[in-house]
Amino acid sequence: MRINFKLLLGSALLTLSHGALAQMNIFACEPEYAALAKELAPDARIYSATTAMQDPHQVQARPSLIAKMRQADLVICAGAELEVGWLPMLQMKAANVQVRSTDKGLFFAAEHVKTLDQMSNVDRSMGDIHSLGNPHVHFSPQRMLTIAQALTGKLIQLDEKQSAGYQQQLSLFSVRWQLAMTKWQVKARALQGMKVIAYHSSFRYLFDFTNIEQVADLEPKPGLPPTSSHLASLLKRADKGDIAAIIIASYQNQRGANWLAEKSNLPIIILPLSVGGNEQSNDLFSLYDSTLDLLTQAYRAQK
Amino acid sequence: MKNFQFLPARLSAHLPIKFSAAIVISSFFPLLSQAQTPTLSNLTVSAVLDGYYQSDDRLMTERAEGFGLGETELAFSASIDDMFFGKLTTVFESHNGETEVNVEEAFIQTMALPNGFTVRAGKFLSDIGYLNNQHLHSDSFTSRPSAYRAFLGGHYFDDGLRFSYIAPTDLYWTMGVEAFSGDSLRAADEHGERAFDSTGVYTAFTKMGGDISIESSWQLGLSYLRNENGQLTAEEHDEAGHEEAGHEEAGHEEAGHEDENDHAHGASYTGKNTFITDFVYKWAPNGNYKYQHLTLSAEYFRVSDFMVPDLHEELAGAADHEEGDDANSKDYHEAWYVSGVYQFSPNWSAGLRYGKLNSQLQHEGHFDQQTLKETELSIAWHNSHFSTVRLEFSHQSNVGFENANNDNVMTLQYVVTMGAHNAHQF
Asked: Which residue in A has a C-alpha nearest to residue B175's C-alpha?
């Protein structure tokens, strides 16, 4: 009994001290933004709604997410309609006015950078695409730096007292990020001209950064799974002999890729979609390191 | 239908309503492409097309034998200002050559109340049970379980007011109360003589839920519905004592009759107190819902006090004389179902559902127990996230229902969504 009482008292005190610190509750739609929040607001209580093993397009507006959003001070999402199938439902059910609009505690990363592949005329017959451009911006190092700056601005807006602390975290992050960027640019230069077949446009920004050419997509149309006739046409394309690898993301089904790899003798590279997508990717830095290393290995093997 | 204001007058004058509706929907597309932002701040327009062929009539369903349109809906929603969100959902249905236009939702909801409170007013879907607040087009079967068809008229939407609260806890916990006019849940009143309460239905509900692991989640709900107009009265009993009235009652439960426009959306069995328990469990490998996932759900309904006390006594007296005949008749209706739906791949899913309804039918001065058992197997092909073609086989066996055979019914259905991406509930 005594132990129980102590435990109870301890947890009560812990709750109180948390309250005194006014620890910020951050809800991230994707793990890359949870990781970024951890760099910029290390003291915050951060929750990621999805993992790198899950398709961020198709997430259930499940009870636990509603409960987390109810308590959030800040919600960070990729935006550009990536979360259109579930975020509005969470907002509706969580009844948390703080995270309803971008004027307050809602932050869309894609709103702060120029997205690629914006379309003026979108039609569903083209597949599940978004007029606001490709939302998977987290593989663009330059854009992530801009997003980090904007996010710091948002953190300061919400928690002015800690303004100096957030500024300090941002400058620390910026220095480390820029240093890493020079290293990544060297690796990227070596990858220039590499041709790949990939699944979805998940790595659009990575390929843009590294000048890798995605010559074909395993999906016949965005959001639609590979079909056998489409795979047959990819095999024909692969027979030209200039393709280095088939690339899929950690959450994507390997079946189509396996079939194509077997027929074409191409290697499959499973790249982490985000932080936590493989053993090496523990934060944003190691995510880039691991991804670029995996690509470099495959390109060297082709040569 | 004449009041359907989205139709330009010229079009509706020249074309059958079905086709003009389609044209109007398509003419919204230029508007749609600019109204897709998910932030609840722009006007979102979405349409759902639902068409079917059904080999036979089924008890209490809105779908009838032959070709027809199910819940074909056109919905508009937007933030009105920083406080209010509004939604209008219009539903078209057609079967047996009749077209209906209904307003299923026309509500405003607060968005900026503090501390997790929300108020919704207007016409909306009640939040009782698991399926009721979901739109029919997101169902995995062509018809709602018999529990919903018998006690809520398929799905219960009404004019009313809701207060709800969500607790700031890691365990999802929400609760709410509602008041509705309750017209569609009124007890049968063939002669229109009864003085019904204008605010007839009150509900209270709570839902809890969470994750068990990264792969699975659950939700449990408890609901109570009090229906001031749900009890059969003694006068009613007098009417039902005659044989014709008994047949009226039976016809009331049958969809697909000529009076279905009046009755298809109303409950077939009503009572003063309804209790509902629901449970949902979802699983996906790694919590990734793109390729495979499983949904298990079950609900139990109990509708009690379906007759006023003096009627109850009278019938109890009658039962003493008749002996044995009424031995299996209970003083409550109940129904339950269990359902499992598995998505094998992004293109294919299959579902199996079993449900049972035990209801008491007023008949010549006493109540007879009726039983309806239904087994449904549905197989769906999803060309994309936005289109579904479904084939469903249902087997129903019943005891005590008139004009109903123990049947195998086949239904072929399509459901497609256009315009703004619909956000789905858990």
From this structure: A93
Instruction: Report pLDDT digits (tens) over B93-115.
Output: 887 778 889 999 999 999 999 99
B164 versus B383: which is more confidently predicted? B164
Q: In this complex, is the C-beta atom of B26 within 8 Å of any C-beta atom belonging to chain A?
A: no
CA A200 to chain centre: 14
Q: How far out from the chain centre does Cα B352 lie?
A: 19
ipTM above 0.85, yes or no: yes
Whether B217 shows a pLDDT value over 50: the answer reads yes
Per the domain annotation, does B161 fall within a domain? yes
Q: Domains in chain A and their CATH numbers?
A: 23-180 (3.40.50.1980), 186-302 (3.40.50.1980)
Listing DSSP states for chain A in one string gives -HHHHHHHHHHHHHHHHHHHHTPPEEEESSHHHHHHHHHH-TTSEEEESS-TTS-TTS----HHHHHHHHT-SEEEE--TTTTTTTHHHHHHHHT-GGGSSTTTTEEEGGGGSPPSS--SS--GGG-S--TT----GGG-HHHHHHHHHHHHHHHHHH-GGGHHHHHHHHHHHHHHHHHHHHHHHHHHHHHTT-EEEESTTTTHHHHHHHT-EEEEESSSSTTSPP-HHHHHHHHHHHTTS---EEEEETTS--HHHHHHHHHHTPPEEEE-SSTTSSTT-SSHHHHHHHHHHHHHHHHHHH-
Report the CATH number at residue B106.
Answer: 2.40.160.10
Q: To the nearest whole angstrom, how far is the Cα of A168 from the nearest Cα of chain B?
A: 31
What residue numbers bound the domain in which B253 lies? 35-419
Residue B174 contacts A where some CB pair is shorter than 8 Å: yes
Q: Which residues of A are less than 8 Å from B214 in CB distance?
A: 51
